[in-house]
Amino acid sequence: MAVLLSRIGAASHRHRLPVVLVWLLVLVGGGVGAVTLAGETSSSFSIPGQESTTALERIGEEFGGVGGASARVVLQAPEGQTLATPENAAAVTGLAGELAQLPGVVSATDPLDPAAPAVNPELTTGYSTVTYDAAPGEVTPEQQDALLAAVDDARGTGLTVEVGGEAVQEPPHVGGPAEAIGVVVALLVLAVTYGALAMAGLNLLTALVGVGIGVLGITIATGFTELSSTTPTLAAMLGLAVGIDYALFIVTRFRQELRGGADVATAVAVATGTAGSAVVTAGLTVVIALVGLAVVGIPFLTQMGVAAAATIVVAVLVALTLVPAVLGFLGVRALPRRQRPGSARHGAHEAARPGFLAGWVATVTRHRAVTLLLAVVALGTVAVPFFSMQTTLVQAPPADSTQERAQELLADGFGEGFNGPITVLIEGDGAPRTAAGLSGPVGELDDVALVTPPVPNADGTAALLTVIPESGPTDPATEQLVADLRDLLAGTDGVQASVTGQTAVSVDVAQSLDEALPVYLALVVGLALVLLVLVFRSLLVPLVGVLGFVLTVGAALGATVAVFQWGWLADVVNLDSTGPLISLTPILVIGILFGLAMDYQIFLVSRMHEAHAHGTAPLEAIRTGFRQAAPVVVAAALIMFSVFAGFVPAGEATIKSIAFALAAGILFDAFVVRMVLVPAALALLGGRAWWLPRWLRWLPVLDVEGAALERTPAREDSGELVGATRH
């Protein structure tokens, strides 16, 4: 692999102008395609074939129009008054009529309609249900603005008026000030690492080209298939982080080769063959982990994984072609002036300073048993909250928004459960009569506050019951109520009874993800073992890496539970409210952290393996490899942390917890597992760390370290690079 990649790097160097132009052309073409072909994303999550999802589709067929997006306009009378007073009643009825005439609205109910009143017993709070002809997530910004303007005008009547519901949910944003700060921090880390701001800017620019192409490609895909609104943000966050890091690894090795006396062409080829091999291997782990989400069997999760994986593939291709091409233009200017060939200090800087990290690894490996124990205990302690983790798909509205105030008004007027109603669909002959007979038994279940009268369809073959829980939509008692309803309805004869509604959908998706989590974790752990055995041709090194990954995941999710569920340090991350984690968080975090943890394992341990293969004693090989790779791993981790952390303060609810977990996971993995646990464990193992049983020696040699490049002298013959000499 190293020889092939070195040839790719050499070809990119020789034909650097066409390579750069091709990538720019792809970027521009992606932008044009995104403008002309982009479609809408969906903010809803469901699993085809589940009872709740199927029942929602059946409701749309049986009742018509129910499947459209809806909003609730909540009205509250002034203190000491009711909505039924003549002046207030006129304002309520007038608002309902105005809402019905808004663009895209199919119907708007009158809270004071005697046939179907929607007011609390005290007549102080009521609501109008505004139904659109668009599906959830497809109400246009213009239609949302018209609704919000009508609500704002209604406040002039003296009523308190707020609006909530899926029809007024804002799409996720990418590129806000918080994300920009993360990119700026990444740029500063690169500038310190390289000692030159221009070099840092070029590294960042190549990464932005890759992530731009990836996100634009996803945007184009929305014109042909429905994708989750979270997908582009996730792809941008992950693609930017790995794009910067992959370029960093290749540029750093290129600079090392230049310092060793190699010419520019040879340095490009060797860097692409060595660091590029690690980039391909690391990128492959991320891609497999993300595509592996398909085994869960949840379509929207599969789409998110495949889209993010495609962005990673683009980042790898950029690192292997565009970065070598740009380095060809830079040449020796990639080095600070004092380190360039011919300068007085050229070649002296490496020996001049042993550095903090050299002393660090010496201490860790000298006191290996103590440091290993401390690392395990520290990560295990942080992971404790993980065992209290709860998940849900119900997202809290933004703090101090009209959506949050609408929910509060409904909870005060009708009870907490009114914000998470459960719908029961009865289908079959005599469905309305059966539904009426079920109202009594359903109302006697625990946590039921109210069961509304049955609503039949036009031909009497279906009926709807709305069950209002006493507890809120994210409360475990509500989840139990969904299960109790299904148990009760399972014995209904002659009709088909289904439990649905957004609360039931959330419960079903969360349960499916929770059940898939152990399976997926076993998959990625098994994959990590196989991959690392192939890379390092060892059994114990992969075992250490995988155990470190498990500790990383536990600590990252434990810290996320402590902050987002328990509320610890909530102000630091600008958290609006605490509660269960979004159901997607655990499984996505495992998949992404797996790839990133293997990145650091491969980049760090491959240099140790390289030193050991050259005959260095085991302990000294660990220290030598650490001194060579650790500075780059530290810089890469700081960059990834800053990019992920930039999505936390102002991120949408779905992305916020995922970004926090990834940022925490990067800190734990890079600075505890790879900087402490791995060198300490390998030092304890000594030469046994590189042992491979005789019966496994048939395994292919991946040559991540680029040993094959040493066996072929470097020369350029007729413009074709045959090999390269390592320095």
SSE layout:
Blueprint: H1 2-14, H2 16-37, H3 51-63, E1 70-76, H4 86-100, E2 105-108, E3 125-132, H5 141-154, E4 160-164, H6 177-194, H7 197-221, H8 230-259, H9 264-291, H10 299-330, H11 349-352, H12 356-366, H13 368-382, E5 391-392, H14 402-414, E6 422-427, H15 431-443, E7 448-451, E8 455-456, E9 462-469, H16 476-489, E10 496-500, H17 502-536, H18 540-565, E11 581-582, H19 584-613, H20 618-645, H21 653-685, E12 715-717, E13 720-723
Parallel strand pairs: 5-11
Antiparallel strand pairs: 1-3, 1-4, 2-3, 6-9, 6-10, 7-9, 8-9, 12-13
Enumerate the spans where pLDDT stays under 50 for 5 or more consecutive residues. Answer: 348-353, 713-727
CATH superfamily of the largest domain: Multidrug efflux transporter AcrB transmembrane domain
Helix content: 55-70%
Q: Tell me, rounded to a whole number, the average pLDDT.
A: 83
Q: How does the overall form come out from the CA principal axes?
A: elongated
Helix and strand composition category: alpha+beta
Oligomer: single chain
Query: Number of DSSP helices?
Result: 21
CATH structural class of the largest domain: Mainly Alpha
Largest sheet: 5 strands, antiparallel
Radius of gyration: 30 Å
Q: What is the distance, rounded to the nearest whole angstrom, between the alpha carbons of the first and last residues?
A: 19 Å
The proportion of strand residues reads 5-15%
What count of domains describes the coordinates? 4
CATH topology title of the largest domain = Multidrug efflux transporter AcrB transmembrane fold
Tally of strands = 13
**What is the level-2 CATH architecture name of the largest domain?**
Up-down Bundle
Transmembrane segments: 180-197, 204-222, 234-252, 264-294, 306-330, 369-388, 517-536, 543-568, 580-598, 629-648, 660-685
Membrane topology: Multi-pass membrane protein
Protein name: RND superfamily putative drug exporter
Family: Belongs to the resistance-nodulation-cell division (RND) (TC 2.A.6) family. MmpL subfamily.
